Amino acid sequence: QVQLVESGGGLVQPGGSLRLSCAASGITFSSDAMTWARQAPGKGLEWIASVGSSNDDTQYADSVKGRLPISKNNAKKTLFVEMSSLKPEDTAVYYCFVGGRLTYGQGARGQGTQVTVSS
Known about the structure:
Blueprint: E1 3-7, E2 10-12, E3 18-25, E4 34-39, E5 45-51, E6 58-60, E7 70-73, E8 78-83, E9 92-98, E10 113-117
Parallel strand pairs: 2-10
Antiparallel strand pairs: 1-3, 3-8, 4-5, 4-9, 5-6, 7-8, 9-10
């Protein structure tokens, strides 16, 4: 059974930083593409970043490029996103998925972690 557990969300001021984690089990992980997506209040799910089998293979949405680098630790089966220069519009529930940019919607998803950017 695939299980994804996100953590690290919280309340942060504009310009601040957070590190989100996603602990995976029930999958190989090292050969799996993984994705972060987010859902802001009243909006649909937005893809933000994906990583392939290694951290050399990453893709980003234009809205977060350069601010939210994605990475994975294959030995610990954990996915990360390092969030910096946070803006109020980054406020959302952040989810991790198994799968890449084109396939994550078909894969398993975690329960999400809330990120709120506000002064």
